[in-house]
Design goal:
Layout (H helix, E strand, L loop, with lengths): L1 H17 L3 E5 L5 E5 L29 E3 L12 H13 L5 E6 L6 H21 L7 E7 L10 H7 L1 E6 L3
Length: about 170
C-alpha cells in the first residue's frame, strides 16, 4: 500500500512539473535561467540524457547537486523539486548508491540554531527523496550550519549561496 502511495506521489509530481512549457529555474549559483520543453539552456536533465528526447545511454548522476533555501526556511522551493526528482529517480534505479545530504546556513543566527536549521533543510530533502522511492539507508544527513560557507561576504548575495543542501554521492 505504501509503495502505491509513493508511486502516486511521484506521478503527481512529474505531472505537475511537466505541465508547463516554460519555467524559470535557478542554476547552481542561484541565477535564474529560462528552461523550456525543447531543451533550452538551464534545463534540468540527467547526465547522459539527450536534449533531443532520446536517451544516449544509461542514466547517470544528475548534474545539479545544490538545493538553495530562503532565509530562515527549510521549505523546498518549487524551482528545486525537479532536481530532487531527478536524484530520486537515479537513486531508486541504483539501490547500492548512497548519498550524503549536507545542510548549510548563512552566518546569521547562533551557531546552535544554524546547525539545527541546516539539519532541517537536509531532512526536508531526505523526506522528498524517500517519498519518491529512495530507501532511507541510502541517505546520510549531516549539518554544518554556518561553518562551511561557499561565499564569504556579509550581504544577501553571499548569504543566499550559503543557505543550501549539497547532495554528495559516495566516492565523490
Amino acid at each position: 500500500m505504501r509503495r502505491l502511495v509513493n508511486l502516486l506521489i511521484i506521478f503527481g509530481l512529474i505531472f505537475a512539473l511537466t505541465g508547463c512549457g516554460s519555467t524559470t529555474k535557478k542554476d547552481d549559483e542561484g541565477t535564474s535561467v529560462a528552461a523550456t520543453e525543447g531543451g533550452a539552456e538551464g534545463e534540468i536533465k540527467l547526465d547522459g540524457e539527450s536534449t533531443e528526447g532520446g536517451a544516449t545511454g544509461e542514466v547517470s548522476i544528475p548534474e545539479k547537486r545544490v538545493i538553495y533555501f530562503e532565509f530562515d526556511s527549510s521549505n523546498i522551493q518549487s524551482d528545486f523539486q525537479e532536481v530532487i526528482t531527478a536524484h530520486a529517480a537515479y537513486l531508486a534505479a541504483h539501490p547500492d548508491t548512497t548519498i550524503v545530504l549536507e545542510g548549510h546556513a548563512d552566518e546569521r543566527g547562533t551557531r546552535e540554531y544554524n546547525i539545527a536549521l541546516g539539519e532541517r533543510r537536509a531532512r526536508a530533502v531526505q523526506q522528498l527523496l524517500t517519498l519518491q522511492g529512495v530507501v532511507e539507508k541510502q541517505i546520510q544527513v549531516i549539518s554544518f550550519g554556518e561553518e562551511r560557507p561557499v561565499a564569504m561576504g556579509h550581504d544577501e548575495s553571499a548569504w543566499s549561496l550559503n543557505r543550501r543542501v549539497e547532495i554528495l554521492y559516495s566516492g565523490q
